[in-house]
Amino acid sequence: MIIYNDLKYTNTKYKVCKGPIDKDIEEVVFHKNTEVIKDKAFASCTNIKKIILDNIIVGANAFSFCTGLEHVEARNLRDYSILKADVFSNCGTDTANGMDIILDDIVCIRSGVFSHSKIHNISFPYLTSLDNYAFIGAVFTNPVLVLPEGFKFLCGSAFKDSNLEHLYLPDSCEYFTGIDNLDGACLHMSKKVFNKLRLKPADNIIISDISLDNLLENHTYREINELKLKETNITK
Length: 236
Description:
The model is unreliable at 1-14 and 227-236 (pLDDT under 50). This protein is 10% helix and 28% strand. It is mainly beta. It is elongated. It has one domain.
């Protein structure tokens, strides 16, 4: 484990972590005064297994190609709780089950953040939007994903070329485009959401009267995402 205090003072506002000298590191704890992780700072550090980000700005591609990554936590990010482009692209691909990801207060996942990565479980209770290609080419070892109540904006191409099988939209969803880019994944929603989004009937759209709140009576977000739920168990 390495504590980074190799801070580069680019101006009076930011204290920037440039990245490791030793690419073989396995775990990183950032110096308490670190405010920014530079673009590509830890890219291709294939032995890193655990990353915790707290009260910090994370640059694009900061951890891309960390293929051994198993655990990610992010909270209190300074730039409006947004994960920037390609931050964790091509990560976790050398692990047995993929990454466990906890995004405590992240509201937006930008393009390519988890592109071509391997994901076991992901939790994002405050997420409100997913950009195009956020999870493009991603491999989900549990290919069921439930978007939280409060989520509003979804670009269908967020999951293009991934192996996602079931995606659940909450009643709060207000905008959805690119349904053709779900690559056959079943899209579950209430009739209320279906009408609000003005979608056309399609083979992969499943209207269910069982709300997200009802699902959560028996399962947490994490448990739901871990279950390979069958259509007959959750739809009428």
